[in-house]
Amino acid sequence: MLGAVFHLARGAHVGFVLAREGGLALIDADQLPPHLRFALRLGRALERRGIAADPGASPLERALTRLGPSYVKFGQFLATRPDIVGMAAARDLERLQDRVPPFPQGVAMRVVEQEFGKPVSALFSAFSEPVAAASIAQVHKATVLDADGTQRTLAVKVMRPGVRERFAKDIQAMRFMARVVQALLPDAERLRPREVVEILARSVTMEMDFRLEAAAMSELAQNTAGDADFRTPRPEWALTARDVLTSEWIDGIRLNDRAGIVAAGHDPKALGRTVIQSFLRQAIRDGFFHADMHPGNLFVDRDGILVAVDFGIMGRLGHAERRFLAEILLGFITRDYRRVAQVHFEAGYVPRHHSVDDFAQAIRAIGEPIHQRRADEISMAKVLTLLFDVTALFDMSTRTELVMLQKTMVVVEGVARSLDPQLDMWTGAEPVVRSWITRHLGPIGRLEGGARAALTLSEVVSDIPDIAQRIRRIMIRLDEEGSRDVKALERIAHLEQRRAVWSTLALWAIAVGALVLAFR
Description:
By secondary structure, the chain is an alpha+beta fold. It folds into four domains: about 1-100, no CATH class; about 100-165 and about 205-250, Phosphorylase Kinase, domain 1 (2-Layer Sandwich); about 250-440, no CATH class; about 445-520. It has helices at about 1-20, 35-45, 60-65, 70-80, 80-85, 85-95, 105-115, 120-125, 165-185, 195-205, 210-225, 260-265, 270-285, 320-335, 335-345, 355-370, 380-395, 400-420, 425-440, 445-480, 485-520; strands spanning about 125-135, 135-145, 150-160, 230, 245-250, 255, 290, 300, 305-310, 315. Strands 1-2-3-5 form a four-stranded antiparallel sheet. Strands 4-9-8-6 form a four-stranded mixed sheet. The chain has a two-stranded antiparallel ribbon with strand order 7-10. β8 (about 300) and β9 form a beta hairpin. The radius of gyration is 27 Å and the shape is globular. Keywords: ATP-binding, Cell inner membrane, Cell membrane, Kinase, Membrane, Nucleotide-binding, Transferase, Transmembrane, Transmembrane helix, Ubiquinone biosynthesis. This is ABC1 atypical kinase-like domain-containing protein. Belongs to the protein kinase superfamily. ADCK protein kinase family. Pathway: Cofactor biosynthesis; ubiquinone biosynthesis [regulation].
């Protein structure tokens, strides 16, 4: 009971801050029932005078910054989910930045010493004051002396003390508020408020374990090891723990410093093309992409190589989603709208009761206008946004991974075009898309598909003895117990055995069919 009172008070405080900063102005009153319209009017009456004319931060940006780091993180998360908050709110939330003062160097050193059980002087030959600070952690510049006498510069990311406890309390309050919203506004179920809070909780929990971020950094580095124009820092595993992440220090120019890039002799146009191609390689080729590629996380080093940092937010795509993305992009490039439509149906994203031809017609309405304009005037991210809007008319369910991909593409495209305003996104994307399709849908891909089918077939065959043994054990146990319902249960077991056999035969047929298709 006391916890409910606390969460209610916290929820009232959140509502008050949102109202004062004008955040309630984004709510469409026409979509609310009468009793909540009245509550919205009362809330709007609390707005600070002249707030609408304030040319500074957006209402949501002001409100969430006032509420603290947990809500800033919540806003940044919602910025990747325009399917939940709408594009207007998502654009406002994109501007959210962690404006948190650093904590003292001495406190950071104590965190490092607690994690490794050694004084900082035994771990590093130098350890600087904080050079960057955010809501969860801050970064220090440090140096180490290797056994061969080589001195290396490292970046040491240190968890902010007490941040886990504060996030845990705020998450509990958010869970309570999500339940209240769902109770007061049943129509809000389509926005899945409780699910959104749980996704945020999982995301932040993972982000607060720096060993997982180091693993993401390492995986991305492994995936892109053969890319001559992109790299990631190397994690220092011996100096990484739950609350401390140590990695290679990056000396470079941030991508939002175009003048500095030109002054250093780098080609901003080539760099813009690298940004979009690197992202698409990660998404389509590897299925694992950096989902926070804003200019503050991207550098160009002295060799002109693009370097990404901060791997707290990553996205994954399965093989089916990667094929989906590659084929729809190629379909728009080649104006094959029927193929774009068929891909949606083959992936199971659009229900079968809809017509492929009707869907292709709707996609043509998106695709044809872009072929009437110069390539540098076309936004690939906008095309995907329009595509998702159209698919909503055909009952396509929301795909979280595709929404994150689309939102990241908006940011990536903005970064690329800031370097080269005339960048032809489609020409830049085509080599990556065609390469993946040739590799995975051509002869080599079919051979690999056949190999996967054969492996599945062998696994099914190897499972048959185990299924038979499980059925036998059930029969023996029933016989030993002398149950009066043994015969009935025997019939059930017999039916299960027949079902297992028929399931096995069906899987055999599917696997053989896959082999046949693979070699056609």
